[in-house]
Amino acid sequence: MATQHSRSVARFMLAPAVILLLGWMLVPLTATLIFSFKKYLPLRGGDLGWVGFDNYVRFVSSSAFWPSVMATLTIIGSVLVITIILGIVLALLLDQPMWGQGIVRILVIAPFFVMPTVSALVWKNMFMDPINGILAHLWKFFGAAPVEWLTQASMQSIVMIVSWQWLPFATLILLTSVQSLDREQLEAAEMDGAPWISRFWHLILPHLARAITIVLLIQTIFLLSVFAEIFVTTGGAFGTKTLTYLIFQRVLESQNIGLGSAGGVYAIILANIVAIFLMRAVGKNLDS
Amino acid sequence: MLLKNTLRAATALSLLAASGAIADTLTIATVNNGDMIRMQGLTDDFTAKTGHTVEWVTLEENVLRQRVTTDITTKGGAFDIMTIGMYETPIWGKNGWLVPLNDLSADYNAADILPAMSGGLSYDGTLYAAPFYGESSMIMYRTDLMEKAGLEMPEAPTWTFIREAAAAMTDRDNEINGICLRGKAGWGEGGAFITAMSNSFGARWFDMDWNAQFDTKPWKDTLEFYSGMMNESGPAGYATNGFNENLSLFQQGKCGMWIDATVAASFVTNPKDSTVADSVGFALAPDNGLGKRSNWLWAWALGIPAGTQKEAAAKQFIEWATSTSYIELVAANEGWANVPPGARTSLYENPNYMDVPFAKMTLDSILSADPNNSTVEPSPYVGIQFAAIPEFAGIATDVSQEFAAAYAGQQSIDEALAKAQAITNDAMEAAGYR
Amino acid sequence: MARAVTTQRKTLNTLIAWSIGFVIFFPILWTILTSFKTEAQAINDPPLFLFFDWTLENYAVVQERSNYMRFLWNSIFLAGGSTLLGIIIAVPAAWSMAFVPSNRTKDILMWMLSTKMLPAVGVLYPIYIGFVKLGLLDSRLGLMIILMLINLPIIIWMLYTYFKEIPGEILEAARMDGASLKDEILYVLTPMAIPGIASTVLLNVILAWNEAFWTLNLTAAKAAPLTAFIASYSSPEGLFFAKLSAASTMAIAPILILGWFSQKQLVRGLTFGAVK
């Protein structure tokens, strides 16, 4: 169908985007790779020469490495599960007839507009503070001892904050999908006496598969680089140090660019493993 | 008002005419502490006197540190003046990244800067940043609660007394915690406190061969004492409390004692913000009978990155902001209790200032801190709550995270110390010390 | 076949949905309420919900201390500019992938998305040095380009999915009628893709508005947007909940209002091709 001419025009139109992104990928990637093989300490005079794989060995053998990989995967996994399950529930609910649907929808999507730094500050100081936080007051009201959220349930707290931010996104995408459900088919199934759970399992969920895929993909990309929520709340303590945070500490706190860059290469590898895993699990849903 | 402005304009013009300088716009990076915010409010006075204008970049401490460090190491030139501390100044000065401040005007009287401060802000005898304010740490306590507990605070208490007093003052039903201390991860937060405290327990970060010392008894004693006391008498969630959280708690009347920066004294005694302003007493930071107290030494100082185009104007600003006349300006506007403390000897010879209740204790605390001789056993580093080597910030942040996890009960003190030992030795080896 | 919904059922739906909506929105509502309290009221025990002396004092303090309008303008400029630039580059790219697909199209799309996975902090130094050399440090232009590059993959992908849903026959019909490529894009494609483009724009304005790593690390005084404004209010000395709330409200209000007014558009368009 496409002629030779339109093919070359198409290539021409694609070129700027590809070239820009190629540059945006290659320049930093090259820099990261070069630094990762160097002893590069800005506070000690900068470039102190090539050191082979020293930085790579040191980064992996640090006691913080594996816990940080686990923390990263835990945050991504938990937030995905929470936002997708709650997102489906909310999407189905918001699709029901009710008064003031528009307003509810606004309330539900609002957290998406809040800067991560702001939401982390608000949650940390005004909600999770064990003395002045709303949650502490709530617990005391019901006669329970306030939870020290950020120390006793540090990972859960961060997952909660991040989920709160991303739930609107999941809900929105799932909602658009729910709205395109085939009503007649659903009603026919209901007439046939199919129980709710089987209608959900056999009709609704397969229809949502594609939307879920999209949520998985986009959120994973953003969750890999969660930072402000940790920086503001726990500062990387209490087992919440993700790979991104560990790299931040190596680059900016320790001022060890070489070591941080080696960490960056590991982060790229981890991201690609996650991506390949996602593609396998999800890729077929994207073909239409 | 009109007259004042006219006068200002007139002074500005005459000064401009006198110096023949062109007006510059200075970009100044600073931390969002109360004294700096006050300085921002008074910038007009600087502009009136010199004709230069100022663009402020005010950031939270952690963000500021990462921002200015990136800029100075890359010679970015985004700022004409940076607010830095006693940790950064000698390291940056050694690298030649800061403009030496050895040619400030005679009026400025650099000899008036407290020797402890100018010493900590110099490298090889040259001053690289001028102190805006200086601090040590001391005990701030509630005189009413102390009395209620039937105790009397000595001027120089021991840790044993503090622990007993904290337990006696604690009243969980009324949400009063006997003692509030920093536990938050971060080398400048909980890391600074525990390091200063460990000095009084006879601990040190490194022996003379730069071997980490976390496997020694004094460190274990320090952490066990700290977490034992905090679990008995500290606030809930203390492992995430830093300076600011504790200040807030103290101002709300929820702490019996608080050991922290001497600058906090003016905040806790300010009736506008503090519910307990009338009943705050001060004492030297505790010791353990080993000859070292647990107070630190710090200054927030203004330095000029080498290579700035506006060096002359930047020096003028520094002379303005750290001068005695700036102190008088603040005193005239906001009262003597709110002037930036701890930088100048003359301030502590001023009878007006010595009437301020915390003035003497602040000076005594500063004078009793010696960065060159901070540990009971000899150590190879300079600094009290830090070791002035470039690797320290990174290591101490990791170590303080392990400590915070121990305070929160996520690991035992022995585990935390073992990890701290491994982290530190590993990093020191990488840096080529061992 | 539409089944009548009982009022009872509708009431129940409404009740549940409103409660959930309230809970999700509560942190924002609480921030806004706190911004009108004094610092002492902000930490009152029990918490004060509506009955306190409403005051604007925090806003006055924040306004006096920092030049809000400049931060706001920078945010608008950066978010708007980077999105516009992104759209200009993304529309042709998405068009060509959607209408002249090759067997590599999907790989190219995935590769583009994967450029977002590089941890930003790892490349702070090289980018910073590059910016210094090019004189782009603390400039809106430099930051606009970075933000555009960060979000470009998402823009392209969103547009691609919309374009793909436009039936090819329409384009062929237009071509038969002698429409040039330019006409095709301008008069046939664009009108059909407007809802998609609109929601793409919205999503990217939000993402650019909230980006807090590069906007904080590559700016000083001139180009700093609202993310830097917030960094000067997070944990200052002393009681700060009320002032923090006021600053937070000022930082999120513009984008929140934009989001609310355009939420229909956003809901309609935010499909990423998820709807068949």
Give the key terms.
heterotrimer; A: 288 residues; mainly alpha; 13 helices; globular; C: MetI-like fold; 2 domains; 0% strand
Class by helix and strand content of chain A? Answer: mainly alpha
CATH architecture of the domain at 65-240 in chain A: Orthogonal Bundle
CATH fold group of the largest domain in chain C: MetI-like fold
List the uncertain runs of chain C.
none
Radius of gyration of chain A: 24 Å
Greatest contact pair?
A: A-C, 105 and 97 residues
Note the quaternary state here. Answer: heterotrimer
Biggest sheet details of chain A:
2 strands, antiparallel
Count the domains of chain C. Answer: 2
- How does the overall form of chain C come out from the CA principal axes? globular
- Broad structural category of chain C: mainly alpha
How do you describe this structure in short?
The complex is a heterotrimer of chains A (288), B (434) and C (276). Chain A is mostly helical. Chain A has 13 helices and two strands.
General description of the model:
Chain A has helices at residues 4-36, 54-61, 65-95, 101-109, 116-127, 134-141, 149-152, 154-179, 183-191, 196-223, 228-233, 243-253, 257-286, and strands at 38-41, 46-50. By secondary structure, chain A is mainly α. Chain A has a domain at 65-240: MetI-like fold, CATH 1.10.3720.10. Chain A has a two-stranded antiparallel sheet. The longest helix of chain A has 33 residues, at 4-36. The relative contact order of chain A is 0.14. The model of chain A has no long low-confidence stretch (mean pLDDT 89). By secondary structure, chain B is α/β, with parallel strands linked by helices. Chain B folds into 2 domains: 2-128 and 297-354, Periplasmic binding protein-like II (D-Maltodextrin-Binding Protein, domain 2, 3-Layer(aba) Sandwich); 137-296 and 378-430, 3-Layer(aba) Sandwich (D-Maltodextrin-Binding Protein, domain 2), CATH 3.40.190.10. Chain B contains 18 helices and 10 strands. In chain B, a hairpin with a 2-residue loop joins β4 and β5. Chain C has 276 residues and is an all-alpha fold. Chain C has 2 domains: 7-59, no CATH class; 66-232, MetI-like (MetI-like fold, Orthogonal Bundle), CATH 1.10.3720. Chain C is 71% helix and 0% strand. Chain C has 13 helices and no strands. Chain C has helices at 7-34, 39-42, 57-65, 68-99, 105-114, 124-134, 140-165, 168-176, 181-210, 214-217, 226-231, 241-261, 263-269. In chain C, α4 packs parallel to α7, α4 packs across α9 and α7 crosses α9 (181-210). Chain C is globular, with a radius of gyration of 23 Å. Chains in contact: A-B, A-C, B-C. The interface between A and C is large, with 105 and 97 residues.
